[in-house]
Amino acid sequence: MKGAQTKSLILESALKLVSVEGLGAISIGRLAKSVGLSKSGLFAHFDSKNALQEEVLERASNEFVASVVRPALKKPRGIPRLQAMFDNWLRWASSGRLPGGCIFVGAAVELDDKPGPLRDTLVKTQKDWIATLATAARIAIEEGHLPEAPSPEQIAFELYGIMMSYHLYKRLLGDRHARSKARDACHRILGGD
Questions:
Q1: Measured between alpha carbons, how far is 63 from 186 in angstroms, rounded to an integer?
Q2: Model confidence over 45-79: pLDDT tens digits?
């Protein structure tokens, strides 16, 4: 059990580091020092830096599903569920747990032009999330909560765009109204003003 706890501690520390500095910033030596292990001790849990990066993305994806998707699925079908997905996503991106915000946003910029397994993992997680948003939008249309146009895929695109804008305005520009702007934009898409 101690090995699993140590690995979990390493991944937790790595997530925080990645949220601020990006996947490329993971250094075996630096991470080992931050969790009080030797480099060889850290290597006992991860064969390579690439394996560590993959597991960080996997852990972030699992936490995202647990924090954003699963709670939203408990809401009624249609707009309530889609709104919950967005609200949970916004909370995920602005929680203090990841000091640099959503690691997927940073990883998307970091890996967009770098082919390889790490990029493939990121692409898969983001395509899965976009498909989940589109499915929730499709259900909202079927329930009569949204008009048939725009398409569910367009709604997912626009919601994702709001989150990208939120990150820019909140994290880079320091706009203290970024959260309310994101909520207002989402409200307009989901049948508001």
A1: 23
A2: 877 888 888 999 999 999 999 999 999 999 999 99
Could you tell me the pTM of the whole model?
0.89
Dist CA 184 CA 97 (whole Å)? 25
CATH of the domain at 112: 1.10.357.10
| Rg (the chain; Cα; Å) | 18
Count up the domains in the chain and report the number: 1
Region at 101 (left for phi over 0; alpha for psi -120 to 50; beta for the rest): left
Question: What φ, ψ does residue 116 adopt, rounded to 5°?
Answer: 145, 180
Among 65, 53, 43, 176, smallest CA distance to 106 is for: 53
The end-to-end CA distance of the chain, in Å, is 53
Residue 81 lies in a domain: yes
How many residues are given for the chain? 193
For residue 158, give its domain range: 49-189
C-alpha span between 25 and 93 (Å, rounded) = 20
